[in-house]
Amino acid sequence: MPAPLKIIQCGTGIAGKEALGAILERPDLTLAGLLVHSAENAGRDAASFVGAPDCGVIATRDVATLVATPTDAVLYMLLVPDLDAICAFLASGKNVITTAGFMYPAWNKPEADAKLRAACAAGGSSFYVSGVNPGFVDEILPLTLSLLSREWETVTITEYADCSTYPSPPMLFDVMGFAKTPEDIAAGRVADMSVMTDFFAASVASLAHGLGLALDEVRQTREFVTAAQGFDIGAGRIEAGTIAGQRWRWAGVVAGVERIVQQTYWIVAFDLGEGWPQTGEMEGDVRWTVTIEGNPALRCTFETRPSFAPGTPARGANTSGTATAMAAVNALRPVVEAPAGLLTAIDLPQPRWRG
Question: Structural domain of residue 91, as residue ranges?
Fold first, then answer.
């Protein structure tokens, strides 16, 4: 077995904790540092975030200290990415894998693309973006399915997510806009979601790049459905007339024709109307479908669950969070071994679990 990779973990949210736990338990990885966002978390032993025995690595908010720490790679999983911090890690010779954004920045973030490329060149390092979606579902899975195609016409990736049990009021209400009115959105009274929407638009462009397709544009639309009556969810109250469902759509267009479509149905209740998820259609919190129209036409439905076996004990409360984390963790060694630069899925070996 090759020597364990030394890893810095950035972030201790849902996916960040899953990644941290995996680093601590795997013999091929060694935790070298932990970056946290809040002052109250600084100074804690890293293992305390996942309920494990102390490991001797102390959480810090000091990026400069971690940049100076000898490591092979950084897992950057903070909610909002800090481009300067990421570039500092890259320029110091550390490979960076993130779930936070900057996927295929050549499409919609040319200044960030230039900075990332310069940092990779300075450090001889690589930068890679992954996750469950964007990431696996809208890049690796369609590329894998395309291996079965003689020809393809369109690719559509659809996400259905029941957010009613998500425990974060700030994320659901202040960022995503649930429990607000469409008028609140139109008037700008909800936080700008450009980091997230840019992420999905870039993921469409990244898949097009992988399929050898030059897009003319990515069109973005958003529509809402409101609650007919008030009800409570895990994060709080949804009043009648406020947003209970939203559909985002990003369409990659060539010569006026939509060739790649990524769409998300985010809801906090079922049976919101025609075309929206109905009661009984989903057993878990999230479901994705990837459809390729072509020769042959192909469709894959993808879900994450604690188990598909009846009576099997649950292994975790947030399986999509685990999947997001492991998409990054399992890419560590391929990224470390890859040539320096900005990477997409087509630059890495066919993925598989290497336990």
Answer: 5-131+325-347
- C-beta separation of 338 from 348 below 8 A: yes
> Whose CA is closest to 321, among 8, 6, 17?
17
User: If you write DSSP's letter for every residue of 168-223 in order, what string do you get?
Assistant: -HIIIIIIS-TTS-HHHHHTT-S---HHHHHHHHHHHHHHHHHHT---SEEEEEEE
Looking at the domain assignment, is residue 14 inside a domain? yes
> Among all chains, which residue has been given the structure tokens 């999905």?
200
CA distance 73 to 10: 11
309 in a domain, yes or no?
no
Which CATH number goes with the domain that contains 91? 3.40.50.720
Q: How many structural domains comprise the chain?
A: 2
Domain shared by 182 and 273, yes or no: yes
Model pLDDT, residue 305: 86
Tell me if 234 is assigned to some domain.
yes
Q: What DSSP character marks residue 60?
A: B
* 339 — pLDDT class (breaks 50, 70, 90): very high
Same-domain check for residues 156 and 249? yes
Of residues 307 and 8, the one with the higher pLDDT is: 8
Give yes or no for residue 141 having a pLDDT over 80: yes
Name, in order, each residue with C-beta under 8 angstroms of 338's C-beta and a sequence gap of 6 or more.
126, 128, 347, 348
The tokens describing 306, both together, are: 């604690």
Angle of helix 14-25 versus helix 319-329 axis, rounded to 10:
50
Residue 320 belongs to a domain: no
CA 283 to chain centre: 22
